[in-house]
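Bench log. Compound arrived from synthesis this morning; before running ITC I wanted a structural hypothesis for how SN-glycerol-3-phosphate sits in the protein. Inputs:
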Amino acid sequence: MRSLAALLVLASVAVAADKPVAPYTKPTCIAHRGASFDAPEHTLAAYELALKYGADFVEPDLQLTKDGVLVCLHDTTLERTTNVKDVFPDRAKEVNGKKTWPVAEFTLKEIQMLDAGGWKDKKFAGQRVPTFQQMIDAVKGKAGIIPETKAPEVYGKLGLNMEKELMAVLKANKLDAPGADPKTPVVIQSFSAESLKALRKDHACRLPLVYLFTVDQTAEKLKEMKEYADGIAPNKALVLKRPGLVADAHALGMSVTVWTCRSGSTGQFKDVKAEMRHMLKELKVDAIFTDNPDQFPKE
Ligand code: G3P
Ligand code: CA
């Protein structure tokens, strides 16, 4: 005879298969770096377009300036997405024989002199690197926000504390507690388990935390993750290879968010909409990071 505990687990999996797992309340579209297929990633233009496309959440990746301000950028360096090499040609560092311009060596004032849109298309010239605060101002009341603590260890070595700064900005905007603003749910994500642990333990963060990873995890490992994460965010290749990862997480009450679905990089699927539909309907993921929020299946 099955034990009551086993029956409860089975029941929770059955529920999880039909209903997205908290903090998500429906199949959830996350605009990855904004609507970054059509607009330059991490610019206000990309965030505003994501809102126009109806994204449920907008993603800012976070870095810290020399003067300790959170800015929205994917890379720890400025050269891929700005014209820093033209504006500050003499400020490059040489790393492995390559010139690079680390975010942490520039003040906010200097970073906001840079063009962050022209590399994508001339029509976006003049877009700036937004601060996290500017991102919040653009999105609050219109969608959720899912900030990623990027390379917090890099900044820790420089005496900066990304988790502390993040919680301070969220608090100043009254977004630091679950449900604080029903129109703007906040979820925090990181590849760094240490960062999530620090948020929970050192900063008493009660917001949902999501752990990003690129290597398949056993159910046992997921159980360990549950100590510091409410959800998992595997690379999409992992769930395509082992769909049972989703059920393993759901059985523990953890949400599953996959990344990144983008036009032109959809493998066996005919287009990004078909890929996202498969992720939601067949693999039962709860949320998807996508560069193409306009293609997110609504039905
Ligand atoms: O945060 C989800 C996804 O964005 C992880 O990849 O490198 O685009 O930040 P990355
Ligand atoms: Ca990210």
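What the model suggests: The mean pLDDT is 95. The chain has twelve helices and 13 strands.
ITC booked for Thursday regardless.
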